[in-house]
Amino acid sequence: MKLFDSIYNPPERAPDQDEACDISSQSAPRRVKDIVVHHTSQLIELNILLIVTSLPILTLPIAWFAATNICLSLLEGKIVYVWHDFWHYIRNIWKPALQMGVANIFMFVLAGIGIAFYNKGGDLLGKSLSCVCVIICIALLLQSIYLPTMNNLTGLTMKQKWVNAALLVPVQLKWTLATASFDMCIVFIGVGLLPYSFFIIPLIGVSLLVLVNAECASHGLTTYVVKQRGR
Predict the structure, then answer these.
(1) For burial by CB atoms within 10 Å, which of 20, 40, 82, 110 has the most?
(2) pLDDT over 50 (residue 37)
(3) pLDDT value for 192
(4) pLDDT-based confidence at 70, cuts 50/70/90?
(5) Backbone torsion region of residue 11, taken as left when φ is above 0, otherwise alpha when ψ lies between -120 and 50, otherwise beta
């Protein structure tokens, strides 16, 4: 029992201040690279936890929120105990994350409706409805880039988070497109290199997506807040 407690509730140790300062002063790509190089084992552990807890599709956003919080802690140079911290975040953020899970289900249903409208016939109404469905799905996907990070960094209500996440998509278009492009590249590489990628993605691929999303979203959010305060 004591051994389990020492693993699940590890003793606190002082963070490396030099490392924290060095990380915070780096550019976004270098910060991500340094996390991957120096925290590889933690990313692999996080990746496995994320995949296992995401097997029920509805729990994917909850696991994603928890993983985002861990990646933000790594990017801030904090000491992270992946197993302990992951379950701690799961217990604390499941309610707002579950709302995103319901939105994801709605998005998939909407995408299916759009495909059905498109395949049903070549009339203008069917194509128009399918285009509307696709636009809404893309908007929800882009909005979800900022939601997990905003949940960690702000004290807004869930409604305010959804509204502000939607506003950040066009306002911080650079970081939105950078994140979406990276996500698409990882997905295309993973699909294109099958079956070889089957042995790589389960190790670090998903946690790498979360890490890059967290870095880009936090940078975009911070840049926007700084600009607004400077006005």
Answers:
(1) 82
(2) yes
(3) 76
(4) very high
(5) beta
- Average model confidence (pLDDT) across the chain: 76
Strand runs labelled E in 80-172 = none
d(CA 187, CA 204): 13
| CB 105, CB 49: distance < 8 Å | no
Give the other-Cβ count within 10 Å of 51's Cβ. 17
Pair of tokens at residue 145: 């880039």
The C-alpha atoms of residue 165 and residue 149 are separated, in whole angstroms, by: 10
**Count of all residues that appear for the chain in the document:** 231
pTM metric for this prediction: 0.75
Closest CA to 143 of 115, 163, 117: 163
CA dist 165 → 105, 173, 211, 218 (Å): 19, 12, 18, 12
Contacts of 104 (CB under 8 A, 6+ apart): 57, 60, 61, 140, 144
Of 177, 148, 172, 178, the closest CA to residue 220 belongs to 172
Whole-angstrom distance, CA of residue 118 vs CA of residue 112: 10
Cα separations in angstroms, 102 against 11, 62, 88, 129: 37, 11, 22, 22
